[in-house]
Amino acid sequence: MTDAEIVKTICPLQTRERFIHSLNVAQMAKKLAERYGEDPKKAYTAGLIHDATKNISGEEQLALISSGGIELSELEKNSPKLWHAVSGSVFAVEKFGIADADVINAVRYHTTGRAGMSMLEKIIYVADFISAERDYEGVEDIRRTAFESLEKAVYIGADFTVKKLNSLSLPVHPDTQRARQFYKIYCKD
Ligand code: DGI
Ligand code: FE
Ligand code: FE
What we know:
The chain has helices spanning 3-10, 16-36, 40-49, 58-67, 74-77, 83-94, 101-108, 119-130, 139-148, 150-167, 174-183. It is mainly α.
């Protein structure tokens, strides 16, 4: 599918806010790709599709996940917020015909992150945190950091997520923990 066809497909599947977020993440991912020598077109597409299944029902998401041959861990089964990254990666293949493994992984790991991410995976992970409509306190600083050290921005994102989940007494996914640990060395100062 072309980006224009993808936009037409995701629009009716998403809330207005989510659709705007998707366009903004795509735009931010393109800028980060230009900064870090990744393919801007590929980054834009990955950004567009990263939350494609965020607003579809849990049942439909679980059906997609099993049709992709993916088995969820107990923690994942008990964390519905994690489903859209996995179901989205299957949707990318089935609906949009995405064949690039890096794009598929960028969608699959955009919520938890993981240790040793590819450039595209880091770009989508960070773009999701700093897209234009994000307005949490400190977002300007993280935006600036993202263009200085993408890895440092990944650490800040993972650390923020771990702290937030702890405060809510929600389980932290092992990939989220490993991402935080892996990228910590980029955040010494
Ligand atoms: O889809 P977005 O809202 O743009 O952002 P996202 O895909 O990063 O999803 C964020 C949600 O996912 C947020 O409610 C926290 C949750 N989340 C992220 N990492 C983990 C997690 N939930 C659990 N239980 N464990 C995690 O490691
Ligand atoms: Fe998401
Ligand atoms: Fe998102």
